[in-house]
Structure formats: structure tokens, C-alpha cells
Design goal:
14 helices, 14 strands, globular, alpha+beta, Jelly Rolls, 39% helix, four-stranded antiparallel sheet, eight-stranded mixed sheet
Amino acid sequence: MLPLPSPSSFSITPYSFLCLNFISYPLFKYSQNHSYRYPSLLGLSIFTLHAMAIDCISNIASMTHHPKDEKKDEQKKLVFDASVLKFESQIPKEFIWPDDEKPSANAPELQVPLIDLGGFLSGDPVATMEASRFISEACQQHGFFLVVNHGVDAKLLADAHKYMDNFFLLPLRQKQRAQRKLGEHCGYASSFTGRFSTKLPWKETLSFRYSAENNSSKMVEDYLVNKMGNELRQLGRVYQDYCEAMSKLSLGIMELLAISLGVGRAHFREFFDKNDSIMRLNYYPPCQKPDLTLGTGPHCDPTSLTILHQDRVGGLQVFVDNEWHSISPNFEAFVVNIGDTFMALSNGRYKSCLHRAVVNSHKPRKSLAFFLCPEGDKVVTPPAELVSQNSPRVYPDFTWPMLLEFTQKHYRADMNTLQEFSNWVQQRNS
């Protein structure tokens, strides 16, 4: 056999060199018999053979791989790739929910008030009082209501949905450039595979921070460009505009909430005026076994107020009177619900309600969720009008960053988040 180049000249280890000889020798003999001359080796360069050698070593290593290591590797490698999993008839066990939490078929429709904001936005005092009364009734019962004539531009809404499609149809590797890190609330997440190992949600999300501070006018755009590159600048501009529209709408709703609770009309608007909020794009791909999994598990939002815009595919369900109910999509309306932080601000008068999302086998579902949150240094404490001898304090004082950290690092959000957090705060203070 003719000598091959020295291993050191190609940074080949002794083991890979042995494999290289093992692979190349039969090829060389073949080339001798068929008038080929070294180093062509049937058109394979030494670099190609080197790659084959590495492959050879990998195969040998895998043969000696311990089963426990394989199990660890498998768990580590679990990735929710919607482009693949939406066709799978056998879904991974990590996405299968317990029998008592599996989705219920034919959930009855929840009767939620449809509140026309047109009169309130134009300054009509009668329409304002009527809207606040409807909101009060809904928030004492389950915390969900719909708003129409909300003043949000229809083209902006259409663009927000279009660019959501554009993002989630990107290859997984490209979306992972904005990968959400453990313990953080911003970025791209393909399910919660890196954080939990059971009851995983059948969804992808992209979350980013929005601040109403005057010097934050390009925060969303800059974040997405920094993470994904300049080709997503227009997407960033659309969601910057969308967040600004949501912030404005949520401050108006806060006025109505204040009126409905009998506190100063400007109280909550001023509290959230420089809000530091979260925007989330939700994508629920089809699932061939929709009766086994959930798009989002049962939870109460830990934030203050959620403004949700659904596409035309149903999936939102709310737990009321010990039964799951659906809220059908209405493209003209926003679904609004109270979160844990506002429940604490209202001293428990308004409810943060348990809800979830279900999936189907034939259509993807998409939604836009804006989570209103106060500035980091604002102390969440109810106004004096809502505290009395007959209505003592229900929850301790806290700041939003404390609750956010609790949900990201200590506790998976569910129906008991606020109570568990309150216990945690009280233990820490004592």
C-alpha cells in the first residue's frame, strides 16, 4: 500500500488515521486495478476520506454508548419542530397530558359581554358608565369580556397576523436564533422542552418586551433585528406599532376598571402609564392526536391584563362553574381578561380566571397576546378605597419583577400562582 499523507498534516488523530486507512485501502486497490492513480481514490479527496473516518469513529463510539447516556441524550435533544410533529400519528409522551386534564369535546360557549368602546372613546358619559357596569359584572364572575369599536386600525391587525405567519413558517434553525434562555421570558420557544419534561404544550411562541417609556420607541424593532437580523426589521416595526396600540387600549380599559371599582378614574391609568409589558405571538400547529394534548395548559395569567386577538380558528377555553367553556373567535373583537397582578390590585374583588388552549388535527391556530405589566419599581398594592375593616388586605405588597421571577424560576403558572406567590413572599419577609 502506498503511504498516505502524515496524519499531523491534516490534524487527524491516530484513531481517525486508522479508520482512514481502513476506508481508503480497498478504494486504493480498486483504483490500482482500474488504472486510477493515487490520490484520486475514485474521485474522493483525502478531506472526504477524513470526514468518512470521523463518521467511522462516531459509529464505533455509538456502539459503545451506554444506555443511560442515550436516555440523557434523548431527553436533552427533545425539540418541538412543528414542521415535522404536525404529521406524527404518535406524539412524544412528554406532550401527553393526564386523563383528568385532557381536553373536553364540545365545550359549551361561554356567555361573555361584548362591550362597545365607541361611546367611551368619544367621551360619552352614559356609554362610559354602561361599559364599566358590564366590565364589573364580568370581572366579578370570571374576569373575561370582549371589546369592539376599540380604535385599533384594521390594517395593523391584518399585518400583525401576516407577519406572525411569516415568522413561524421560517425553518426551525432560523427561529432558534432568537432562542429563549432558561429563566428568561423573552425570545423564541418551541414548546417548553428546555424547562419541563412532562405536560408540554403543543405550541411555539415568540415573546418580547415592550416599554411605554418615551425613549423606548424602537425597543421591539431593535430587539428583533438584534436577534434575527436586518431582514426582520419590518416585522419589528409592525409589532412596535401593535404594542403601542395595545398599550393605549389597555390604559383606556384601566380607566373603565377604575370607574367600575369606585376608585379615582385616573388611578390605574397613571399606575400603568409607563408600563413595562410583554408581547407574545402564539402558534399552535395541527396535532394528529388533539385529544391527548393541550396547546396551553390550564393557568391564570400572572400579569395584570391580557388583550388577546384570535385568528378565525377556535381554541380558547375558560373554566367557569366547574366546567370548561369555549370563547369563539371574533376577528372584530379583542378578548380581555384580568390577570393575577390586577386581582391583587383590586384586593381580590376581580377574578383572574383559569383558561387554556386546545388544538385540532387540521388547522394551525394563531393568536396575539399583549400582557400589560407595571413598571418594575411600582408597588402592587390596592388603593385605599378597596381596603376596609370589612375588606382587609388579601395579598401582600410586591413588585411585578418579583412575581415574574417566581413564575420563571420557581413555579409553573397555574390556577394557584398568586396564592403560592403570596405564601412565598410572606415566608421571605418573615
